[in-house]
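Recap from last week: sequence in, structure out.
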Amino acid sequence: MNLRRDVFQAIADPTRRAILTLVAADAMTAGQIAEHFDSARPTVSKHLQILAECELLTATPTGREIRYSLHVDKMQEIDSWLSPFRSLWQTRFQQLDDVLSTMKRRGK
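Predicted C-alpha cells:
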C-alpha cells in the first residue's frame, strides 16, 4: 500500500469530494465541472490540480481542453486500505447489536 497523506487531505475537502462524485459518472472538462459550483473557475481548477496531483483524477487532453475522469485504480487502492477498518466496525456494531438485543430480551 502506497497511500500518501495528500490523498486523505484532498478528500477531506467537501468540494473535492463533490468533484470526485461528478467525474465518477462521466469525464468532464474543467468548465463543465465549474458549472456545478458557486466558486470561481480558478478555484475549481485549483481543486482539480490537487486531485490530479494525488492521482485521484486522470487529466486527458482533448483538443484545447482537458477532460477529467476518476482514476479508478487509485480509488480501489483507497478502498483496499479502508477495508480492514470497515470489517472492524461491522464486527463492533454486531457486538453492540447483540448486547442491545440481550438487554431488550431481559427487559432492561
